[in-house]
Amino acid sequence: QVQLVESGGGLVQPGGSLRLSCVASGITFSTAIMAWIRQAPGKQRELVASISSGGTTNYADSVKGRFTISRDNGKKTVYLQMNSLKPEDAAVYYCRIVSLDIWGQGTLVTVSS
Questions:
Q1: Cα separations (Å) of 42 from 33, 66, 91, 95, 113?
Q2: Which of 19, 28, 48, 74 has CA 20 to 30 A from 42's CA?
Q3: How far apart are CA 48 and CA 18, in angstroms?
Q4: Range 2-31 burial, b when 16+ CB lie within 10 A, else e
Q5: Which of 68, 75, 66, 59 is nearest to 20 (CA)?
Q6: Who contacts 9 (Cβ-Cβ below 8 Å, separation ≥6)?
């Protein structure tokens, strides 16, 4: 069974940093295109970042220069390093296996002073 488990969310002050992790199981992780998607209350889901099997990355304009997506195929884990966090970054962040359209349970990020 394919499963994604996210962690690393929490409360952070504006300007702070968090690192999200997503551990995959049940798939050949090294060949999977992975993505982070977020959804804030009352807003549509937003693709934050994606990373290909070869390590090519893409970012939403709203997070470019602040967020970094990376992967460790040996650990079957994808990361999202979030720096210079803003209140508008607050959301539930989901990990997704793009090709299988499988999602994790989400991890809540709150940015507030």
A1: 28, 24, 10, 20, 21
A2: 19
A3: 15
A4: eebebebbeebeeeeebebbbbbeebebee
A5: 68
A6: 18, 20, 92, 93, 107, 108, 109, 110
pLDDT, residue 79, reads 98
pLDDT digits (tens, 9 = 90+) for 7-36: 999 999 999 999 999 999 999 999 999 999
H helices present in the chain, as ranges:
none
State the first-to-last Cα distance of the chain, in angstroms, to the nearest integer: 40
- Answer for the pair 93, 78: CB distance below 8 angstroms, yes or no: no
